Amino acid sequence: MSTLILNNLQSNQANGVIGVSSGNIVYSPGSMVQIQSTTKTDTFSAAPNGTWTDITGMTVTITPRRTSSRIWVVVSVVGGGPSTTPKIRMLRNIPSDNTVIAVGDAAGSRQQAMFGSYLHVDANQTMAFGSNFYDTPSTISAITYKLQINNDNTQTWFCNRSNSDQDSATGGRYISVITAIEIAQ
């Protein structure tokens, strides 16, 4: 076996890939290895029950090619509801390990979440929430990222539609997206 020692190795490809004769691929640090994305086009409602509930369809699965890779997870959720206080968090599921990630610090009885808001909007309006997180899972096993909501108010919160969901020109239907991007290190 031979060892090749270099001070600098750069790709001449736009995607940062360096091909080697064995058929393996070397990714330059910071380059995107793969992208997986899920777009939710249907609707979902979260009853005001004060418990964490999966947002159906807001999951994405990615299988990293290297244990050293980082995963950049980008989310955009559209929703609405009268005087609601939704909180959304992310979970990372690696076989036999379901972990809440990307949440604020614990402080008293406050709920830890990735993002949330107080929505007091017209019955035909919605808001877009967005956030992202840079994860270091250190695995080549399949990882599923999913979003959960805790609606602890007295009103129902709706995903991809407004509270009134009017079937008219003032009503609308929307999309929500969760994307996982593997970044070489």
> In angstroms, what is the radius of gyration?
20 Å
How many separate structural domains?
A: 1
Count of separate DSSP helical elements: 0
Largest sheet: 6 strands, antiparallel
Question: What does this protein structure show overall?
Answer:
With 185 residues, the protein is mainly β. 0% of the residues lie in helices and 45% in strands. The protein is elongated and about 65 Å long.
Labels describing this entry:
185 residues, mainly beta, Jelly Rolls, six-stranded antiparallel beta sheet, five-stranded antiparallel beta sheet, 0% helix
Topology:
Layout: E1 17-19, E2 25-27, E3 32-40, E4 44-46, E5 53-62, E6 70-80, E7 86-94, E8 97-101, E9 115-116, E10 127-135, E11 143-151, E12 157-159, E13 176-183
Antiparallel strand pairs: 1-2, 3-13, 4-12, 5-11, 6-10, 6-12, 6-13, 7-8, 7-9, 7-11
Short description:
The protein is mainly beta and 185 residues long. 0% of the residues lie in helices and 45% in strands.
